[in-house]
Amino acid sequence: MPKSAISSIQCPGLQSIRITLPGYGILLSIVLFCPCNTAFAQEEVQIKEITATLSANFTAEDLAELTEQLSFYLKYPLDLNRTSPEQLKELFFLSPLQINNFFTHIRLSGKLKDVLELQAIAGFDVTIINRLLPFIKVKEELPLDFSKAGKGVSELTLRYGQLLEKQKGYNDLPGSRYLGTPEKLLLQYRYRLNNQAALSIVAKKDAGESFFSGNSKSGFDFISGSFALYNSGRFKKIVAGDYSLQFGQGLSLWSGSSFGKGDDVAGIAKKDTGLKPYTSANEYSFFRGTGATYSLLKSIDLTGFISLRNLDASLTNSAEGIQQLSAISTSGLHRTAAENEHKGKLGLLLYGAAITYNKNSLDLGITAHHSSYQHEFITGTQRYKQYNFSGRELTNLGLHYNYTFRNIYFFGEAAHSIPGGTAVLTGAMASLSPRISAIVLFRNYEKEHISFYNKAAGEGSTAANEKGVYTGLHINVTKKWTLSAYVDVFWFPWAKYRVDEASSGYELTGRITYKPDKKFKALLSYQTKHSQQNEGSGKLVNPIADLRKDNCRLEGNLTLNRKITLQNRFEVTRYQKGIATAEYGYLFYQDVAWRPMSSRISANLRLAFFHTPSYNSRIYAYEDDVLHATGSGIYSGEGIRSYFNLSYNLSRQLRVWGRYAVYVYPGMEKTGSGLEEINGNKKSEIKLQLRYQF
After folding, report:
1. What are the tens digits of pLDDT across the range 322-373?
2. C-alpha span between 680 and 663 (Å, rounded)
3. Strand runs (DSSP E) across 578-671, as ranges?
4. Phi, psi at 6, each rounded to 5°
5. What gap in Å lies between CA 637 and CA 346, rounded to an integer?
6. What is the DSSP track for 230-273?
7. What are the pLDDT digits (tens) for 557-580?
């Protein structure tokens, strides 16, 4: 057990009594519940602190899925003596090394008697324990069964949103236009029975889509549902409906959300969860059918799956009159006649299996799946498409591993596609000392490799035509100062989109955090990315030019009292291509949050000023929203951004949110382009959300 003492561990809504264990010099806290009800006031705060840095790398739907997981475990904390690796992986701020160290400790030392025994586990410092405390507990409980199904929990969410200004696409004009109404609607229902069963229904209508008319006569344009059973005999999981598959490091088979390069340097090593029900409103990244995970032996699991669904696609006719696939659409938007024409045009049958071995500190896995498409893929004539997939049949194979030796976590995967080539990545994560951790990852993806369901680490999104080395470092310099940095060097042996020849580049990011106490936090970060791109377009000979993007950010958070929190940011961006003059942009905003701990009501406000010469120098910034609708705002052009969020707890089960957000572009007569064009210099939106838990 480490000799260093934790001076205090705080959890919102809790009080603590500190004691010292004789002989260990470790200061622990006995946690007592505060009599006031603080859950509603603190829910958004705790989730925001974890997810704010992720918003630029995730779609709004995928980020909503992550926040919903955290919300569930806030209300129903994980029992550390009864949890599984898959459940701890859903607390995505934990690294694979920390999760492995936790289960090694349980195996060698037995069950925990108090959550603060986490101090004795390598990799669990004060910061990570404080972040973890709201989502965990240590408590003995009797197993549930279906005779007590009434003890399950249900959650119903209804959301409405709409732009207040009329966009060009809603005018009754000849040519392309929106066929539906401007409202955005979302309906979600969730039911969970501890670790035994789960039911999910998601229905969504995007702005511009029809509702009970046109191609959506039955109502919502997108409907998704899943039902899952857990721990039923030797079946660990059975899922019917829509589901995700996440294995290895994402080279061969991974659907749904996934981390990449970001502020958390350890996030580059993926934490696979295998088969899981799909609960996101993202309309592309899922499978539809059935899957099951069966325990063959104590340490060996077999997962089988089959999926049959229709994808949105653009088709062309060959000289022989055969329909061929020219492009797959992943947006899920069906607003215009052309978008509706592409809806569900490509049938896909996918089936396969994965076998995994897990014992002590070693995990091994083999995946194999086959895809059969209704129409034939064509590669196109562009140089960068020469090695793209052609045909109708594709087989993907993968072999992945992870192994912990002392304080080093090794991980990797090798994948092969038929037709196609091979892709390999391997890495290691190590706790060099109680304060220093490091990670290194090597990757080599052949240009012939093909995988449509991958989220592997890399600069590109296809796990093909790329080589690279990623190294990251995280240092707890003192209790007040934290430093993290990474550098990623990458090469592309063949042409890629907007680059007609081989190219290379690198990305460097550094981040310093200063937190002297619970009330104040300051952050300084710098990122520079050097890559290459075609000098122009439409040229017979198109040389590549150097491309450079820089971002520098200074951010401060101050808690004035129990009710008011302030946050501000000043960010500068620089963009330069070739010998052209560099362009500079900036963003400044002030946030004010009012969240009384014992009140039914909470609110927050932002006022932002921004200026970027073009979309190339745009800036992304996390924005508060109604619960689970958080995402990243795009600040481009010159203007003012403001929003106001209000939340009110009508009862213990019923809660309502409201939001008003506006962009103002002084001096402009129109905003947006194409069908999204608005007459005037303002673009504003309202949202209303209702959640009922029972």
Report:
1. 788 878 898 999 999 999 999 999 999 999 999 999 988 899 999 999 999 9
2. 11
3. 583-594, 601-611, 619-623, 631-635, 638-649, 654-664, 670-671
4. -90, 120
5. 38
6. EEETTEEEEEEEEEEEE-TTSSS-B-S----SSS-GGGGS----
7. 999 988 999 999 999 999 999 999
